[in-house]
Amino acid sequence: MVLALQQARMAATRGEVPVGAVLLDAQGSVLAQAGNRVEELQDPSAHAEMLVMREAVRQRQGRRLADCTLVVSLEPCPMCAAAMAHFRVGRLVFGAYDPKGGAVEHGPRLPYRAEALHRPDIVGGVREQEAGDLLKTFFQTLRAGGRSDPA
Q1: Among 82, 79, 78, which Cα is nearest to 120's?
Q2: Which among 111, 43, 109, 50 is positioned nearest to 83, based on CA atoms?
Q3: Contact, 18 vs 135, CB < 8 A?
Q4: pLDDT tens readout for residues 53-89
Q5: Which domains does the chain carry?
Q6: Which of 66, 92, 139, 145 has a CA that sits 20 to 30 A from residue 54's CA?
Q7: What CA–CA distance (Å, rounded) separates 47 from 51?
């Protein structure tokens, strides 16, 4: 989670929503790490989770990540939760819960649906306060005019 939070902090310095992700192989080695790049790339799918899953399958030359752990600073959104199922990510570890936009423990709870393609092992709330504080500070600054909202 330390690396995911570092990526989240770096994303915030670039004006991105501070979410970071790391993908680990079965031995715990880092396959990929990234922070959100939605604004930089002008790509609404450039969430940290999507970036690390794409990079890992590119490196491994295979589309399955069943032996991998995705570590992300925020509960994944519907897009990322659905992608995790398609990539067959074996384990998800996340920091802050996201009652408004999350899709793992909130909203559609995609991994728990009967029609889910795949159900990873899930651990939530790891360094939850730290991850949540990053987001809270970012959005407080944004609302106070700290940077313009391109949306």
Answers
A1: 82
A2: 50
A3: yes
A4: 999 999 999 999 999 999 999 999 999 999 999 999 9
A5: 2-143 (3.40.140.10)
A6: 139
A7: 6
Please list the active-site residues. Answer: 49
Per-residue pLDDT band at 147 (split at 50, 70, 90): low
The answer to whether residues 67 and 94 touch, using CB atoms and an 8 Å cutoff, is no
φ, ψ dihedrals at 61, nearest 5°:
55, 40
User: Which residues fall in the annotated binding site for Zn(2+)?
Assistant: 47, 77, 80
Q: Chain-wide mean pLDDT for the chain?
A: 95
Q: What is the CA radius of gyration of the chain?
A: 15
Q: What CA–CA distance (Å, rounded) separates 118 from 56?
A: 18
Compute how many other C-beta atoms are within 10 angstroms of the C-beta atom of residue 41. 12
Identify any residues that bridge with 23 across adjacent strands, giving them in sequence order: 32, 70
Return the bridge partners of 123, or none. Answer: 93
The residues, any chain, with a CB within 8 Å of residue 47's CB and separated by 6 or more, are 19, 21, 36, 38, 77, 79, 80
